[in-house]
Design brief:
The complex is a heterotrimer of chains A (296), B (247) and C (342). Chain B is of the alpha/beta class and 247 residues long. Chain B has 9 helices and 10 strands. Chain C contains 12 helices and 2 strands.
Chain lengths: 296, 247, 342
């Protein structure tokens, strides 16, 4: 196979695949890093919210609902649930300096419950969700499945929207202030409790959206959250916990590494390679690539 | 042993363009009490961090007993005989007072004792008990540090530095937040330290400084403004204007 | 001369003794009734407690949460299985498993101990997941099915011999090993080295200023924890006849952390009680529903929210107060230090 052909038929499609996965990974990591960056909470149940999104897509499509409506509806439905979790559970272990460990453990317990709940409701089997659009588009001679292109576009728009929200709006300024100094912000009249609940809901909703978006591409099964969480945390750690830019860059980079590596070596080594990349980055930059939200 | 115990030569560090400590040089004489003073933000604690190994200097040298110890880690600085206390109390809160002292004294025990029962660390336990006595904490020996009063905790901060017999003590605002009575007691303890070690002190209490210091070094905005005997420093117009502005 | 920490651990020793006695009595009754199921379950719980001890050494005494201790448990198990398939020698399996987990925990520690706090926890998680994935995909190690057909092994203890398929005999052997490891770990925590670990948990930042290497102490603790997990892991294939990649997974580590928290962090004995409780709970729930995870997860959340010191943590302080009212030993501070029998 000639080099140009290799690019056109092997490399480029693989890069696009990596981008599609990468976009979803970025969304999940973004949610995770925002939750850490603002709330200082390690959300071990984040993967389950991703799974809930995917199962939501499955459930609603089985009920005959249009995919795009599900995509809009599911995050909205997840918000009140997220607020309840934040108020009832996370808020309780918030104070004191064991916060990282207590929230980690608490959300770990939550992940066990949520995962099993998914099994209770949907059964232990694997399901699939039909893609809302089929077919492919020719992009510079490379055949790209339409859905993947849409996913990348939607994801990019969403990420840009969030970045704009955090960095260019009043709400964002309030969020960053509360991230930087909670007590000061509170004494300045910022409704910190509301901001916290809203931010947690935003983070969780992002995971849910990613779940819906990826459902047509990968199978939907109850332990999918557990499988995904390591990748999500790797991205967040490499990018810098609490950094939006870091989540984006690390998310795209790690999934590309994974995608390209699978071309030359067996895909089973994908995880070890991503993990190895994380360890490598931490060796030289123990705090990740970028600075934390509000602290840059 | 002759010569100054500590020599600071052109020590400096910047944080992103901001010179926290800038070209500071001085010497500390053996068995003396030298106090570092200066308005807030003068770089005193940063200076201590540079000397004790918590921060690596951007420029300059630190010599302890003539040996270049610049940039050594806190652990190796301690092994070289330099002990440092903290402005914000930094003890082992969930351990007992005696255990705090014992573990600080443990470095005196031979490494081969590391896996023998702690009860057999007679040297460390003995030193800990001696410190309890000297600092008036014997009745609180088995109490958790968290239950001590602020003054007692500040005294324990000093005791922890002293228990393993360092050559040089860096005490960062030891009387910070203390009542008058506590301050007086602590002042006498610090004065007595000069017999067995050298003390480099950061302090704000003018009366205390004047009373026990042999030498005073004034920092302002990261630079050494003046150095000398306490009386001379007090009369120094530059020092006065640094603290009070132009009269 | 007893200090605060020693007094603290006394309560744990009493609880350990109580556990030992209870286990002996219950297993004797069980054997008398001809039961094999519950004795086997108890053996499984004790083996699993090894991971718990490993976790508690790190979390409760060194102040670091590792979510990957099952990795060393699994390595010990695989090493043991591989040995037993060729040479049915109990002691050889134990030695190889211990060595394998020793080496592995050095490598793991070199990677994980570069970072602290949450990063350490997540890397320990990553290490275990990655290793589990690699094993899952390695045909020589049985891939996803694991290694089966581990033969029954005779344990030669000099005077007597125990067979691994003798429920009571093997249970007692495992019990003895767990008690021995508990004793060793308790002893280590009563040494200057152990006290540095405890100081790390109390205030890691101050420790270098006292002249000690944080990294060195944490490496030593990590390796010790790994070997403990690995030694008990070696016993697992002897009990169940097989090993699978699941042994190394995040879920196994996670369950170990759950059991430590349920039992009581920082008591050492809590890990044992917690593991037994968890295994029994899963078995009981498992008999009428597949969904024990919901119960375990909810209980775990309750413990984190309401009972952070675990169940033992409620009993422990009460026991400590009780013990401190015993006739005073010669430990008044200020008295000349004497060589005192404990």
């Amino acid at each position: 196979m000639g080099f140009a052909d290799y690019i056109q038929f092997v490399l480029a499609p693989q890069i696009i695949n990596g981008l599609a996965l990468g976009t979803a990974v970025v969304l999940v990591a973004l949610g995770l890093t925002i939750i850490f960056g603002l709330l200082d909470v390690i959300n071990m149940s984040h993967g389950e919210f991703y799974a809930i999104g995917a199962f939501g897509a499955f459930g609603l499509s089985a009920a005959g609902l249009n995919f795009w409506i599900s995509l809009a509806l599911i995050p909205i439905l997840m918000v009140p649930f997220a607020v309840v979790v934040e108020r009832l559970l996370i808020r309780r272990v918030f104070d004191g300096d064991g916060r990282h460990v207590s929230t980690l453990l608490l959300t770990f317990g939550l992940s066990l419950v949520l995962e099993d709940l998914l099994k209770v409701v949907f059964g232990p089997n694997t399901h699939s969700v039909a893609a809302p659009v089929s077919g492919a588009i020719d992009v510079f001679g490379v055949t790209v499945p339409t859905y993947r292109l849409l996913l990348i576009g939607l994801g990019a728009a969403l990420v840009s929207g969030i970045a704009l929200l955090i960095y260019r709006t009043r709400f964002g300024a309030v969020v960053r202030a509360a991230a930087f100094d909670r007590h000061m912000s509170a004494s300045l009249g910022v409704p910190v409790g509301l901001v916290y609940a809203a931010t947690f809901a935003l983070g969780v909703a992002l995971a849910g959206i990613a779940g819906v978006l990826l459902a047509p591409l990968y199978s939907v099964f109850p332990t999918m959250g557990r499988d995904f969480i390591l990748l999500a945390f790797s991205v967040v750690i490499v990018g810098g916990m609490g950094s939006i830019l870091g989540a984006v860059i690390a998310g795209l980079a790690l999934t590309q590494i994974q995608a390209l590596a699978s071309l030359v070596i067996s895909p089973v080594w994908a995880d070890p390679i991503v993990f190895g990349a994380m360890v490598l980055v931490l060796t030289f930059r123990p705090r990740g690539l970028f600075e934390r939200l509000g602290h840059a | 042993m002759t010569g100054p115990i500590l020599q600071i030569e052109k020590l400096g560090i910047s944080f992103g363009g901001f010179k926290a400590v800038d070209d500071v040089s001085f010497e500390v004489e053996r068995n003396c009490i030298t106090t570092v003073i200066g308005p807030n933000g003068a770089g005193k604690s940063t200076l201590f961090n540079l000397i004790s190994g918590a921060l690596r200097p951007g420029s300059g040298r630190v010599l302890l007993d003539g040996i270049d110890v610049t940039g050594l880690s806190p652990r190796r600085m301690r092994a070289s005989g330099l002990a440092r206390s903290f402005q914000i109390t930094n003890l082992f809160a969930e351990l007992s007072v005696r255990e705090n002292l014992r573990i600080a004294a443990q470095m005196l025990e031979s490494k081969t004792n590391a896996l023998l029962p702690v009860r057999w660390s007679r040297l460390a336990i003995g030193r800990a008990d001696a410190m309890l006595d000297r600092f008036g904490l014997t009745s609180k020996a088995n109490d958790l540090v968290g239950s001590l009063s602020h003054g007692e905790q500040r005294r324990l901060e000093i005791a922890i530095c002293l228990v393993a017999g360092p050559k040089l003590l860096l005490l960062d605002e030891p009387t910070q937040g203390m009542s008058h009575g506590d301050t007086e007691e602590t002042k006498e303890i610090i004065r007595s330290l000069a017999k067995e070690a050298t003390v480099l002190l950061i302090e704000h209490d003018v009366a205390l400084i004047m009373d026990i210091s042999h030498h005073v070094i004034v920092l302002q905005q990261g630079r050494k403004l003046a150095a000398g005997e306490p009386a001379a420093i007090r009369a120094n117009p530059a020092v006065q204007s640094a603290y009070f502005g132009r009269a | 001369m007893r200090d605060q920490q020693s007094k603290f651990m006394r309560a744990s020793h009493v609880l350990m003794l109580f556990f030992l006695v209870a286990a002996l009595i219950l297993s004797a009754i069980g054997a008398g009734l001809g039961d094999a199921f519950y004795i086997r379950l108890g053996t499984e719980a004790l083996i699993f407690a090894g991971i718990g001890l490993s976790v508690d050494l790190l979390l409760g005494f060194t102040g670091v949460l590792s979510l990957g201790q099952a990795l060393y448990f699994g390595i010990g198990a695989y090493a043991s299985a591989l040995v037993l398939l060729r040479v049915p020698s109990f002691w050889l399996a134990l030695v190889v498993a211990g060595s394998a987990s020793f080496v592995a925990s050095i490598f793991g520690g070199l990677i994980a101990n570069r970072v602290r706090g949450v990063y350490f926890t997540l890397i320990s998680l990553g290490l275990a997941q990655v290793a589990a994935k690699i094993v899952y995909n390695t045909r020589e190690l049985g891939a996803s099915d694991g290694i089966i057909g581990v033969p029954v092994v005779q344990v030669d203890l000099g005077l007597l011999s125990v067979s691994s398929d003798d429920p009571l005999g093997f249970f007692l052997l495992v019990l003895a090993i767990v008690v021995a490891l508990y004793t060793i770990l308790s002893y280590v925590l009563e040494t200057p080295f152990g006290r540095i670990l405890i100081a790390l948990k109390a205030n890691e930042r101050r420790v270098p200023f006292l002249g000690y290497s944080v990294w060195g102490a944490r490496m030593a603790a990590y390796v010790l924890a790994g070997v403990v997990a690995g030694l008990l892991g070696a016993l697992d294939p002897m009990l169940r006849g097989f090993v699978s990649p699941e042994l190394m997974s995040f879920m196994t580590s996670g369950n170990a952390v759950v059991s430590v928290l349920l039992g009581g962090v920082g008591t050492l004995v809590g890990a044992i009680y917690g593991s037994v409780f968890l295994v029994l709970l899963k078995s009981v729930i498992g008999s009428w529903s597949e969904h024990h995870q919901i119960v375990v997860g909810s209980m775990f959340m309750m413990v984190v929210l309401v009972l952070p010191r675990g169940v033992i943590g409620v009993i422990h302080p009460w026991l400590r107060t009780l013990l401190s009212r015993l006739p005073p030993s010669l430990d008044r501070p200020g008295s000349p230090v004497r060589e005192v029998e404990s």
